[in-house]
Amino acid sequence: MAITATQVNELRQKTGAGMMDCKRALTEANGDFEKAIEILRKKGASVASKRAEKSANEGMIVIKISSDLKKVSMVEVNCETDFVANSADFIQLANKVAETAFATEAQDAKKMLENDVNLKNILTDVMGKVGEKIEISRVITLKSETGLFVSYVHMGSKLGVIVKFDNVTNGVDELMEIGKNIAMQVAAMNPICVYREEVPAATIEKEIDIYKELARKEGKPESILDKIALGKLNKFYQENCLFEQAFIKDNSKSVKDLIEEFNKKNGSKTNISLFKRFHLSDEKK
Predict the structure, then answer these.
(1) Angstrom distances, CA of residue 184 to CA of 26, 38, 179, 203
(2) Residue 278 and residue 285: Cα distance in Å, rounded?
(3) Which of 51, 64, 116, 138 is in Cβ range 3.0-4.6 Å of 76 for a Cys bridge?
(4) What number does CATH give the domain 200-240?
(5) What is the predicted pLDDT for the residue at 46?
(6) For residue 165, what are the CA distances in angstroms to 182, 183, 188, 277?
(7) Alpha helices of the chain — where are they, by DSSP H?
(8) Structural element, H or E, at residue 283
(9) What is the reported pLDDT for 247?
(10) Could you give the CA distance from residue 10 to residue 23 in angstroms, rounded to a whole number?
């Protein structure tokens, strides 16, 4: 049977698929609308299968946070090319993933998709439309009773940060401003933890061994190697622990100074309890 332009346009409006894909699907389905939709969906599944071994290193980070700042979700959705990452269909999908994660308080991308058939179908449909592998690589949801969250997504949506503050009693508006700056600090300086006490013992041992070996090669006596290593370890903490880092907007201050000044001004005991940083180039996800 002849397929009309009206039929093609109607299917395109409903599915978002391209004109030629819609025409081919309607032709194969002999004008049966529901069957044509099924054909298009299978095309998406076929794309997913064919592209399974492809690398999906582009994409975007999306953060959704509650109005009271006590609940937040951050997701990373990936595709193969920056072109698709900037497309309306992909952006809409990524935002849908963030909304779903927030509503279900998801912590695991695979389980979230298994529990939400509608989201899985939307993802498959978008894959069929753009012709690329798309995957949800990371999902996290955090909640707080006594603290609050501040979030930051860097321009281009390839890097996102969440910072949690506990014991928040006064000066919330001021803390929001400070928190945004600290989140930007995490984005720019990529600390490994908040406090030096949180640095893994294995990391400390490795650093000490390196410092001692370098000092030996410089001809330093064995009796002072420990002292030298300790001095360099303090420098390591200042560079890698958020609380001790020099503030990027004013390097005469540390992040610790910012928090102490805030607490003194507001008569509070607010502290940074954690941060989460998602970057598209992260090796460990």
Answers:
(1) 50, 45, 9, 25
(2) 9
(3) 138
(4) 1.10.286.20
(5) 46
(6) 11, 11, 19, 15
(7) 5-15, 19-28, 33-50, 82-85, 88-104, 109-115, 117-130, 172-189, 201-217, 225-240, 255-266
(8) none
(9) 96
(10) 11
Give the pLDDT of residue 48: 47
What is the token pair recorded at 218?
């410089």
Query: Residue 5 corresponds to which tokens in the numbers above?
Result: 């332009």
Q: What is the pTM of this model?
A: 0.80
Locus of tokens 């100074």: 257
Is pLDDT at 275 greater than 90 in this prediction? yes
Domain ranges, ordered by start, for the chain = 5-50, 52-143, 200-240
CB 190 within 8 A of CB 248: no
Residue count of the chain: 285
Report how far residue 35's alpha carbon sits from residue 127's, in angstroms, rounded to the nearest whole number.
19
Top-tier CATH class for 52-143:
alpha beta
Residue with tokens 């997701």: 75
For residue 7, the SS3 value is helix
Q: Which two tokens stand for residue 219?
A: 């001809």
**Homologous superfamily, domain 5-50:** Ubiquitin-associated (UBA) domain (1.10.8.10)
Mean pLDDT score, 245-264: 96
Contact present, 242 and 250 (Cβ < 8 Å): no
- Which residues, other chains included, contact 215 with Cβ-Cβ below 8 Å and sequence gap of 6+? 224, 225, 228, 229
Considering only CA atoms, which of 86, 92, 60 is closest in space to residue 74?
A: 60
pLDDT at 136 over 80: yes
* The pLDDT of residue 164: 98
